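Side project, low priority. Logging it here so it doesn't get lost.
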Amino acid sequence: MSDIPTALRDEVVLRAGHRCEYCGLSQVGQEAAFHVDHVVPRVAGGPTAPDNLALACVSCSLRKGARRSAPDPETGEDVLLYSPRSQVWVDHFRWQGAVVVPLTTTGRATVAALAMNRPMAVAIRREEAERGRHPPP
């Protein structure tokens, strides 16, 4: 059971347009309910408040866990992961078909750490594109 009140969860889901705010997958058609992620983890003092919550698919949520940073695969430098509440997605990523292309060190670290281009996610995005539901608005 989630300790996030239903009304708050609903607010997060609606704000995200029923999509993972990291990798862009749609909640529609997924068997498992997406998680409400604490962008700044609770263990690091992050509050359970709208400005610290993001909708995340199960895969991105589990890979992110309580991390706030990860190594940039090009430099090895530890950098902050993308924050859906304080950063703009298109500043760090772009779409190349169904693939998320990182544009910054934050983008590279996030794509690698969350495995945003894992084969199943890319396949689902391709199928969504065929139905006119990808890329996200």
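Brief comment: The chain has five helices and six strands.
Revisit when time allows.
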